[in-house]
C-alpha cells in the first residue's frame, strides 16, 4: 500500500523541542514506528521564519533535524506546523523525493495529521543566560569582598581604640 492509514492513536513521531525555542536553531524529528513518515514543516510566516529542508521522508527508527532561522526579532505568537502521513515501502528508498511523494498524496487526498509547535516567547540564548549567571556570581563576590573590607576596617578601628 502506497499510503497506509494513520492509526487513531499514532504517537510514533516525536518532535523536539516543544515548544520551540528559536535559539536552538533546529527542530528534531524522530520516527519510532516501523513505517516511513512523509513530513513537511511549515510556519505562520515565511517573512518572519525561514525553514530549510522543510520536507523529507523519515525512515523507520531514523532521526533528522530541520534548520530554522528567525528573519526578524519579533516572532511572538508564531508557530511551526509538522504535517505528516505514513508511506509504504516503495517510498523507503533514499533516492525517493519527498516533494513527488507529497504530489501523489495530494492527488489521492491522503489523510494527514498536523502537530502544532508553538514558538516560545521571550527566551534568552544560552550565552545570555551564562553571562547573567556570571554577572550574578561576580556581584556576589563583590558583596563578599565589601563585607570583608568593612569587617577589617571595624577590626582596625577597635584595635586603634584599645591602644
UniProtKB/TrEMBL annotation:
Domain MSP: 1-120
Keyword list, A-Z: Cytoplasm, Cytoskeleton
Pfam families assigned to the protein according to its UniProt record, in alphabetical order: Motile_Sperm
Domain of life of the source: Eukaryota
Region (Disordered): 121-163
InterPro entries assigned: Ig-like_fold (IPR013783), MSP_dom (IPR000535), PapD-like_sf (IPR008962)
UniProt entry tagged with the keyword Cytoplasm: yes
Biased composition (Basic and acidic residues): 124-163
Function: Central component in molecular interactions underlying sperm crawling. Forms an extensive filament system that extends from sperm villipoda, along the leading edge of the pseudopod.
Designated name of the protein: Major sperm protein
Organism encoding this protein: Caenorhabditis latens
